[in-house]
Amino acid sequence: MSVCPPYAPFFGFAGVASAMVLSTIGAAFGTAKAGIGIAGLGTFKPELIMKSLIPVVMSGIIAVYGLVVSVLISGALTPEGYPLFAGFIHLGAGLACGFTGLTAGYAIGIVGDACVRAYVQESKVFVSMVLILIFAEVLGLYGLIVALIMNSKVAGGVGEICYS
Amino acid sequence: TEQAAIGKLNTQAASNGTLFKLVIFSLSLGIIPLTSYYGSLFYLWNGNSTLAAITAIVAANLVLIAYIVLSVLEDKQA
């Protein structure tokens, strides 16, 4: 049983891909669902559009979380001296960030749609909308923190155990 | 008159630079996290990638806060 098999980078790259793909699915759902509500709001009160675009910007931040984790993990992938332990850690980090980004984007989409529709009729909804969106966003942030903590275990370079 | 109202809104948006602000924010949401990640990786943290990732996330959230503040100020102005 070798510690550094040649198929170990498969799991690392799967982590990179899943971080980017899954968080982007969440961000796309959030943008689309909130965009439906904003288009509905825009027909009644166009001057509120700048404020009501906040769910869309927050969905973009979820995609940025996935992007940063992908860039972070892919910077550590090498063909030589890559243990299977590092491959599994990178896969776990990518999945943690990706799936939490999916859930955060889903929440931002549904909340954004409902709140911008309510914002047309009652302007005090704006503060509670921003608060709920922030709580939905930190779900993605938790996944990012877990991904960072997992990745820091192999960030210092563990390729030496391949050659011992 | 519906088209006239839409046209008036477009000229209004163009004159107060709403579209320009939105374009700037979209571009900065893509450019700022990546540049802060690589810049802080090489110049600030000496290769420690975890701290560089945290710097990039803080920069992206600052862009978000700047957008929220700007939209609230613009609403107060109008």
Automatic annotation (TrEMBL), chain A:
One of its GO terms (molecular function) is proton-transporting ATPase activity, rotational mechanism. The chain crosses the membrane at residues 6-32, 53-77, 89-113, 125-150. InterPro entries: ATPase_proteolipid_c-like_dom (IPR002379), ATPase_proteolipid_csu (IPR000245), ATPase_proteolipid_su_C_euk (IPR011555), F/V-ATP_Csub_sf (IPR035921). It is a multi-pass membrane protein. Pfam families: ATP-synt_C. GO terms for cellular component: fungal-type vacuole; proton-transporting V-type ATPase, V0 domain; vacuolar membrane. Residues 15-73, 91-150 form the V-ATPase proteolipid subunit C-like domain. It is found in: Vacuole membrane. CDD domains: ATP-synt_Vo_c_ATP6C_rpt1, ATP-synt_Vo_c_ATP6C_rpt2. Keywords: Hydrogen ion transport, Ion transport, Membrane, Transmembrane, Transmembrane helix, Transport, Vacuole. Belongs to the V-ATPase proteolipid subunit family. V-ATPase is a heteromultimeric enzyme composed of a peripheral catalytic V1 complex (components A to H) attached to an integral membrane V0 proton pore complex (components: a, c, c', c'', d, e, f and VOA1). The decameric c-ring forms the proton-conducting pore, and is composed of eight proteolipid subunits c, one subunit c' and one subunit c''. Proton-conducting pore forming subunit of the V0 complex of vacuolar(H+)-ATPase (V-ATPase), a multisubunit enzyme composed of a peripheral complex (V1) that hydrolyzes ATP and a membrane integral complex (V0) that translocates protons. V-ATPase is responsible for acidifying and maintaining the pH of intracellular compartments. This is V-type proton ATPase proteolipid subunit. It comes from Lentinula raphanica.
From TrEMBL, chain B:
Coiled coil: none annotated. It comes from Lentinula raphanica. GO terms for biological process: vacuolar proton-transporting V-type ATPase complex assembly. The chain crosses the membrane at residues 22-45, 51-73. InterPro entries: Vma21. The keyword Transmembrane applies. It holds the Pfam family VMA21. This is Vacuolar ATPase assembly integral membrane protein VMA21. Keywords: Cytoplasmic vesicle, Endoplasmic reticulum, Membrane, Transmembrane, Transmembrane helix. One of its GO terms (cellular component) is cytoplasmic vesicle. It comes from the Eukaryota.
